[in-house]
Design a protein that fits this description.
This protein has helices at 6-22, 24-34, 39-57, 62-76, 81-95, 104-122, 131-144, 150-167, 191-208, and strands at residues 4-5, 101-102. By secondary structure, it is mostly helical. It has a two-stranded antiparallel sheet. The chain binds adenosine-5'-triphosphate (ATP) and magnesium ion. Residues 31, 35-36, 38-39, 79, 177 line the site of magnesium ion.
């Protein structure tokens, strides 16, 4: 397999919606420790809306699917993470416009445009204890594996994604609500880094299985 198909992108979003349904309480618990205990509900609500909208666009190009997903997340999640996840998909829609399949380079561009959007909007950098730590780990690994087979690159990036998520435990938050806690934010896994890992893990599952 050298290409990610549109059907796999649709399956990704369906898998993600099911995952956020399943992990709602866990994500909320993480956010209870260093935030305001709404991240699980936010993600579940956002992806529920994505599932409402998906049937209208599932046979369109990948860019349209990404854009529709971004708009749905932007309009329903709210808070800090709504605009950030909305931006991930809206920026990811630009390079995928009119595409029906993506090779590794195109998939990497889609996600790296998304990360750039997240960083432009939220101004977080590596080590700030946010979702950016997960995406940076993913994208650094994808960049290093551009000449590997798609499956191999994704497996490596999936490992890195988990490590990125876990790396937030020891960090002190410098962005978002958790930063108000100062040193007390250390020792807790960041909720957004966790939901971002789930999102990428579901993409990998949709492609690899
Ligand atoms: N500036 C930022 N850049 C990147 N990610 C951020 C930023 N601020 C917060 N986050 C991410 O958002 C997650 C929290 O998302 P959540 O859905 O709980 O929004 P929220 O912070 O409760 O929003 P609000 O405080 O407006 O209610 C954090 O765990 C972190 O990963
Ligand atoms: Mg919150």
């Amino acid at each position: 397999m050298t290409q990610v198909t549109k059907q796999q992108i649709v399956r990704w979003l369906e898998n993600a919606a099911a995952k956020f349904e399943q992990e709602k309480d866990f994500l909320t618990e993480l956010d209870r420790q260093i935030g305001d205990a709404d991240h699980g509900a936010n993600m579940q609500r956002g992806f529920h809306k994505v599932m409402d909208k998906l049937p209208d666009v599932a046979d369109k190009d990948i860019g349209t699917i990404m854009k529709t997903t971004g708009m749905a997340l932007l309009s329903t999640i709210g808070g800090a993470s709504g605009p950030l996840y909305g931006t991930l998909f809206l920026r990811g829609a630009i390079s995928t416009e009119a595409k029906e399949a993506l090779d590794l380079a195109a998939l990497t561009t889609m996600l790296s445009d998304g990360l750039k959007g997240i960083q432009q909007r939220g101004k977080a950098v590596a080590g700030d204890k946010t979702m950016v730590d997960t995406w940076l780990a993913i994208l650094n690994t994808l960049a290093q594996n551009q000449h590997a087979p798609l499956e191999e690159a994704l497996k490596q990036a999936l490992n890195a994604s988990e490590q990125g998520m876990l790396s937030t435990i020891d960090m002190q938050a410098r962005k978002g609500r958790a930063s108000y806690l100062g040193e007390r934010s250390i020792g807790h896994q960041d909720p957004g880094a966790t939901s971002s890992h789930y999102l990428f893990a579901e993409l990998c599952r949709a492609i690899l299985s």
